[in-house]
Amino acid sequence: MTAGQIAGLIAAIAFLLLVIFIGMFLLKISRTISEVNSSIRSMTSNIDVIAKQTDKIMATSNTLVKDVDEKLNIVTPVFQAAADLGESVSDLNEATHHLTDKVKNTGKKGAAAGVAGTVGKTAWKMFSKHRHSKKK
């Protein structure tokens, strides 16, 4: 065998090893891609299930929100009536305070008038006695 034949044989063996390693690499990539495709199919089916469940949850939520809204519309007049009652009680309380103040002021004036009346009665009695004593 000549040197050229040995170099050709070495090149052929190197090329054969390169082809074998490339084949093994492509086989591993093929398996990996198969697993990725399997994972994607699994995720797609899981996402479909989640999407269906989400649709059911949204429908239930919409029903609940509509129900709460209807009940809130029923209860709103009660709160309005309570607010009106609170305002009426506040007005009544204010009127009571004004009446109490008037009664206090009237009581003071009445007491002053009572004192003046007593002084007047006493003065009249004294005047009457004085007049009777002069006539006699």
From TrEMBL:
The keyword Transmembrane applies. It comes from the Bacteria. InterPro entries: UPF0478 (IPR009293). It comes from Lentilactobacillus farraginis DSM 18382 = JCM 14108. The chain crosses the membrane at residues 6-27. This is General stress protein. Pfam families: DUF948. SUPFAM superfamilies: Methyl-accepting chemotaxis protein (MCP) signaling domain. Keywords: Membrane, Transmembrane, Transmembrane helix.
